[in-house]
Structure formats: structure tokens, C-alpha cells
Design brief:
The structure is a homodimer of 436-residue chains. Chain A is an alpha+beta fold. Chain A is 41% helix and 21% strand. At the A-B interface, helix 1, strand 1, strand 2, strand 3 and strand 4 of A face helix 1, strand 1, strand 2, strand 3 and strand 4 of B.
Chain lengths: 436, 436
């Protein structure tokens, strides 16, 4: 005999939680589809040569990679590389801009830590253009995420956005073009280590105090969205990239409002950099206001040339991702996820004894044909145990069928929340359950 | 540069087909949930020691198995072994009978052949009991499948059922108890090689002509379901298992009818054996009547003691599985799958020029808030190209916004099927699209 178990770092849920998890998946998918994103489902296993064309360093170490027959194979570690491969491979069959969503498991053989998973769902949307991609989409992305988190209903949330061109151009104007990566990496720690230590570290990088003051003057711009935009615009920076970034930021904010996003759900945050060697324009993070400890629950941004390793066609894009497994586990731990149910059925048909089984089966058939999720209690147990089972799974209605009911062609409908019970026809019972 | 490609034996679809595939998934899931099956999502990667506790021979050769760190890992090759592991592991947390569905990819490193996949979806339902499981469920299984194929709408279909006890008891009464497996394997070829060759092969197994005649008298019973049941019951067989099987078969048929299954969608077929060392009671196959070449598109049956490798608790069960990737690819090839769409949106907002982009964005926001899947055409192209795009993706409605419309707070709603166009308010347009 083998002890039944799974590896650490893998999430497997009991039905009650799985129902909650699937509800989140369905909500996200529904919004993604409402915005016209098309479904994609790439293989879990790909050729290492193709999947790892770009990878290296830390990523490569985490890959589940193995040999089967003549093939060097690997499990996908994100959904972006398979997307790049897919659009390059099917360039001639797809309509661009290509908007796709994929909600699939990805695999990373990390050392297991709290909140880290080796197998987890990512729910990604990306829009890929050929040669160019309209700036409108930079507003559509946060609008999608706004609708997702509105529907997920975990309380107030804020989508923070920035534009990498603002940062890049600004640093370039300070003569720090070559050190952008280092500076941004240091600034990224502002929240964690505070300004003083950031200043020290910048000093260690050879940044002068005057340069640091300038940097801080940008980073510390605060106020309403419009105030922030006005202050950034008023900065005495002579740099084309910077100006382009500011102008883009303004247009994105304007479009977000036109799309109906309330100001309370977004803010411009000039400290956001994200994926240093990846993003090139608008970048996003999303926080649940009441649970800052969760960090960003949804991030992304605009990138150039997604498919450089696979095709000569230039394909810029924009994408955003929800790490659903991690988010679910965090929400669960924080006690935010409630309202789980042990069952998906609306009605449980309970025959009083074996002689009523035929009538029960018939009744269940009629309920299901009416589109009501229905189950039959078919074990030969006492009435007390039958009702205990009904309470335990939390089914809203029980349909009791005793000798008298069966003979009269009736059922006893019990509303489990009020404990009210009435003897009515099967059709009437169906109407009541449907109307709830 | 690396050529973007995937391995043979892996299915990856273009959006139009992926939409069709997902629609099938949703239909199947909807019916599974209507019958009270609970969702389960086990890890893709399991410990080899646990996953392969039972496996051996052919199965083991097909496994994707690899080492990562200290762990000997394997990808699941079906959904039944993970279910066995799961119910044994969570015995105390689950409510039994435990009804679960799982619709996930499984992995088999087979040599790629036409119609064989190395990574494919299985859509399984199983019901697991502790110590025993009511016979009612043997009728529920085909009833679920009836509803699934009714909703999938691929024309007439027949669920064929048998009971292994009928076969086992019958052969036992002939003194062929030890040769059941061999005889059944030979009989299984009836469709393929014909009676004459089956008789020859049975002879080679040492079966006498008298025994073969008896076997054929069982196998050749034909007629309506009730006629078949009456003939089987009338056979002069003195064997308890046989009698039990016949009685079960009768009750299952009776319950199937009570559940509302029409006789035209099922038949008793005494030649069905399936998974010889696995199934112990009712067994099923499903054929699409107009496409017999597809073989069984959905099979399963009742088994004893699912979890013997993981727990001392005796857990009998019943299950049925749809191999969706294979079915999809077969249906596609047979030309049965139609009605695919290149988009999920109902409305495409098209600004005439860049000056109408703001009005377009606003309009799209209003449509989406009304629950209409909407997209914006945001590329700066000519009107002809914009409309060509709309036709190409097959969107039902286009909302045109020109200078005049924008100024008057109106939109031009174009019904793409009739080419009719009218200038109305945004709210009126929303009502028309919603009402379709």
C-alpha cells in the first residue's frame, strides 16, 4: 500500500473550495470574453528548443525539462512564450490585432515557499499587433481588470499605472541612460526599505546627490490623477521619450474614463517599473485596498517585439495576468473568500423508503428536464440520516416522497432555509424552485 | 531564430475551432453539474510512487516520467488513478457517495498515430461509495450521457449497455470460469473479424463446439430491449452471478426509463465487455448512429474497490469518460462540427476617423456595461478595410460613429446579416442588440 499524497507546492482543493475557485475562473473568463478576447489553449508540453529559445538563468533552472524518446521536452513556465510561439506560427491564419485569453496551469520547479506554487493557474490576456498597436488598448487592459475585480467583489481595489517612457526619458535626461536598470531596481525597493536607504544605494551606484534629488522630485509627485499628470507635465525635462510617455499616460487616463472607469479605482503611480528588460510603455499593478499585504494581484504592461525569437515580423503587444492559484490561496488565508457551498444542486429528491425509489427517480428526471440541478438520495438509511445529509451539503430544497405522496402523484417540497414544507404537485414544486 | 512549432500528437486549435471546442466543454460541464457532480482539479504532476502504484506494462511505457531535484515525478495518464488517490487521501473530508467530474488533460507518450494524441482532454464523471454503491447510479450514468449528447446535438446516438455479471456468470455455468478473459477477448472481435473466425479462435482456445454454440446463443440474442431482457432471462442458466446480472440489467433499464430516457437512445448489447480486469457490473459504450466509424465516443462502467492501493477502505464506484480531444478531432474530420465563429463579440464599434475615437470608446463602455460583448476597431485604416474586418470576423452588429453621429449623440447601427443600417441613440442600439 502507498500513502496517498501529493507534492508540496501543488494546490488541490476540496469540493467546497473548488467550487469557489471555479466561480472565480468563470467570472474572469466571462469578462475576458465580453471584451472580445478569444480563447487559446496551447499544449502543456513543448519542445525545449522552442520553449526555451529566450529563457536563461533563473527561469531555466525552474523548468520541468525531460527527455521522451528522441525529444527534449519542457512544461510551459508561463503563457507568454507559448503565445509568442503561437502567433508567429499562425501569423497568416490569425486576424490582427489578435486578442487572446488563456487560463491554464504553468509549471515552475521552485523551492517550495509559503505562497509559492510549482503548478499554478495564470489567467492572461494579451493583444498582439503587427508592426504597431493602437494606444487605445492601453486603456482597455485596465478596464478589463476593473470589470474583473468589480465582479469578483473582494472590496475596493486600485489599478496603478505608469509609463516606462516617462521613467526612461526622465533618467536619460539626467544622463543616467546607461544606469536606468540599476536605478529602477533600487527605486523599486522604495516601499520595502524606505527613502533613506534608497538614497544610500543610489549613492553607491555613483548617482550624485543632485541627480538623486531630481529622481525623488519625480517619484514624490502626489495628488489626484489630474494633479499628478499636471505636475509631471510641468517638470523641466527636455527629452522626447519623456514627453511621449507623459502624453501617452494622459491619453490612457482619458480613455479609461471614457470607458467608464471611476477615478477611485485607478491612480497614476510613477514608482511602478515592473519587468525591467521587458516592458516598454504603459505598466500596471493592482492592489486590493483592504489587503495591501497581498501585493499586486494583477500586473502587466506593454512590450515591443514579442516574437523576435520566432519570426522577422515585428509584433508589439500588451498584456496583463492574474496569478489565480496564488490569489486564491492568499484570499483564502486572509479570510476574504466566503459563501462556499458543498454542492451545486438546487434540489435533493429523497424517497422515504425503497418503494418510493421509482417515484423519486421519475421526479428527479422531471426536475432535471426543467433545468434544475438535482440529485437523488439513494442510500437505504433512516430519515434522520437522510435529512442530516441534506443539511450537511447545504442543498436549498429537499423533495420528500413518501407512500402517500407517491400514491397521490404529489411531492413534499421542503425549503431548507425556512424549514417550511408543503405537499404539492411535481410541476408546482419545479416552478417554486425555478422561481427562486 | 527558432522555427515556431509544436510536437505531433498535440492538439492546438485556431480561435474558431477553440470556440467550438470550449462550447462542447461547457455543454458537458453544464450537464455534469446539473446531475450534482462536483468539480475536481488534481495536479498534473504527481509522485511516480503514488501515481504508478498500480500501473505496469504498456501503461508504464507511455508515462511521461522525470526527475526534478530529489523527486521522481510523472504526468497523470488518466483521471481515474488521481481520483482513487484523492478519495483515499481525503476519505474523512468528503461526503459519500462522492460524485465528481474532472475535465482535464492527460498525457501519454504514445507513438503518434492518426487520431491518437499524446496530450488530450478527458471529461470524466465517477461516483464513489464506501463499501457499497446503490444500483440507481448505474442508470444515472447513461442518463447523464444521454443529456450530454442530446445537447451536443450531433444527431442520433445509442448508448449500449451490458452487465459483466451476465457474461461472467454465463461463462462460469459453461465451466469456462478460468477462460472468461480469453473468451471475452475473442468475442470482442466479433465486429471486426466475423463469427466464423471467432469460432475458429475459440476452438483454438479449447472451447468445444457445444460450448461455442451456447456462447453464440447468448451473443446473438436480438430484438427490442424488453425482448432481449426476456430472452436472456429465459436462458437455462443455473448461475447466481448470471441471475444477479440479469436482474441488475432489468432494474437499470427500468430506472433509465423512469429518468426519462427514450428507448431509441439505448440498447442492451450482450457483446460489450470492456476493460476486462477492471469492470465488474454494468458497462457502457456510446455510438453516434450516423458515424459508426467513430467507434465508442463515451465508455465506462462499474468497478469494485477503486482504491485498493491507497487505503483499506473498500470503495466501489462507477464511471464514464468522454475523450474530448479525440472526439473533437474525429467530428471535425467527419465534417460534423459546423457553426464556428471567429469572434465572441456581438458588437464592433467602428469610429469613422481618429476624431471619433473618444465617442467610440464611450459607446463601447456603455455596451459592455449593458453586458454586451463588444470590441472597438481602433486601427487607423480606410472605411472599406474596417468593414472587411467586420465581415471577416463575422460580428453580428457594427456600430458606426461618424462626425455627424458623434455630434448628435447618435450611432449608426448596422445589422451585418441584413446590411440594414439605422441612426439611433446608443441606448436604442443597446436594446436592439440585447433583444436579438
Amino acid at each position: 500500500m502507498v500513502t496517498p499524497r501529493i507534492l508540496t507546492g501543488f494546490m488541490e482543493l476540496l469540493p467546497e473550495d473548488q467550487i469557489l475557485f471555479n466561480r472565480m475562473m468563470d467570472t474572469i473568463r466571462g469578462v475576458y470574453e465580453e471584451f472580445g478576447f478569444l480563447p487559446l489553449d496551447t499544449p502543456t508540453i513543448e519542445l525545449s528548443e522552442v520553449l526555451l529559445a529566450k529563457a536563461g538563468g533563473e527561469t531555466e533552472k525552474q523548468i520541468y525539462r525531460f527527455q521522451k524518446g528522441d525529444h527534449d521536452l519542457a512544461l510551459r513556465f508561463d503563457l507568454t512564450v507559448p503565445l509568442a510561439r503561437y502567433v508567429a506560427q499562425h501569423e497568416n491564419d490569425l486576424v490582427f490585432p489578435f486578442k487572446r485569453y488563456q487560463m491554464s496551469k504553468v509549471f515552475r520547479g521552485e523551492r517550495p515557499q509559503k505562497g509559492r506554487f510549482r503548478e499554478f493557474y495564470q489567467c492572461d490576456i494579451d493583444i498582439i499587433g503587427i508592426d504597431s498597436l493602437p494606444l487605445y488598448y492601453d486603456a482597455e487592459m485596465p478596464s478589463v481588470i476593473y470589470h474583473v475585480f468589480k465582479k469578483l467583489d473582494f472590496g475596493p481595489f486600485t489599478i496603478r499605472l505608469n509609463n516606462r517612457k516617462v521613467l526612461n526619458g526622465f533618467f536619460s535626461s539626467l544622463g543616467l541612460a546607461d544606469q536606468i536598470a540599476d536605478v529602477l531596481r533600487t527605486i523599486d525597493k522604495l516601499d520595502k526599505i524606505g527613502e533613506e536607504k534608497v538614497r544610500l544605494e543610489l549613492g553607491e551606484l555613483g548617482i550624485t546627490e543632485a541627480q538623486t534629488d531630481s529622481i525623488m522630485s519625480l517619484i514624490h509627485i502626489k495628488g489626484s490623477t489630474d494633479e499628478i499628470l499636471a505636475q509631471v507635465e510641468a517638470l523641466p525635462v527636455e527629452d522626447e521619450t519623456f514627453r511621449e510617455g507623459v502624453s501617452e499616460l494622459k491619453e490612457v487616463v482619458s480613455n479609461m474614463r471614457l470607458l467608464g472607469m471611476p477615478d477611485e479605482n485607478f491612480e497614476v503611480d510613477l514608482t511602478i517599473a515592473r519587468g525591467l528588460d521587458y516592458y516598454t510603455g504603459t505598466v500596471y499593478e493592482t492592489r486590493l485596498d483592504d489587503y495591501p499585504q497581498l501585493g499586486s494581484v494583477c500586473s502587466g504592461g506593454r512590450y515591443d517585439n514579442l516574437t523576435g525569437f520566432y519570426t522577422k515580423t515585428n509584433m508589439p503587444g500588451i498584456g496583463i495576468s492574474i496569478g489565480l492559484t496564488r490569489l486564491f490561496s492568499q484570499l483564502k488565508e486572509a479570510g476574504i473568500l466566503t459563501g462556499g457551498s458543498k454542492t451545486l444542486i438546487k434540489a435533493l429528491v429523497v424517497p422515504m423508503g425503497p418503494d418510493q425509489m421509482a417515484a423519486a427517480v421519475q421526479t428527479a428526471g422531471a426536475f432535471r428536464r426543467a433545468g434544475i440541478s438535482t440529485d437523488i438520495y439513494s442510500l437505504t438509511k433512516g430519515m434522520k440520516q437522510k435529512m442530516k445529509y441534506a443539511s450537511r451539503i447545504g442543498v436549498p430544497y429537499v423533495i420528500l416522497i413518501g407512500e402517500e405522496e407517491a400514491a397521490a402523484g404529489k411531492v413534499a417540497l421542503k425549503d431548507m432555509s425556512s424549514s417550511e414544507q408543503k405537499i404539492i404537485s411535481c410541476e408546482e414544486a419545479i416552478q417554486i424552485v425555478l422561481s427562486r
